[in-house]
Amino acid sequence: MKQVGRELGVRYVLEGSVRKAGGRVRITAQLIEAQSGAHLWADRFDGSLRDIFDLQDQVALSIAGVIEPTLQAAEVRYSTERPTNDLTAYDLYLRARAVASTYEQEHLAQALDMLDEAIAREPRYGAALALAATYRVDLENYDWVDDREEEAGGD
Fold this sequence. Notes:
By secondary structure, the chain is of the alpha+beta class. Helices cover 58% and strands 19% of the residues. Strand 1 and strand 2 (24-33) form a beta hairpin. Helix 2 (52-81) crosses helix 5 (126-141), helix 3 packs antiparallel against helix 4 (105-121) and helix 4 runs antiparallel to helix 5. It is elongated and about 65 Å long. It starts with a helix and ends with a helix.
């Protein structure tokens, strides 16, 4: 699988098979992380050859519906597992976590400022990106976004 991923230049591979027995067909599909060979998702679909086009639609919808969230979760894991080499960015990340631990509006805003600085230093720092997104969602959920935008000079 590693070679397939390298040759195609992809991180993930969707692999499958179709088997026929009598008037029935079985379709299997699995999503694999090419580098490690880890299976992220797999499923099996059985149906009648008389309804092959319905089965085809079912397989396509099922795969399309599961691939996006599965890949998104895998990419988040991949991104957060990638540590930063920038110790200042890491320090800002740790300080942001400590400041935001009270979950007060002012503290979340301060933590976001620190995370924004960490991300400016290391734009692909997954842990900082994920935490900043979480805190932004928290501010939105508590209806504190307008207050923060006003403080920042927004509309």
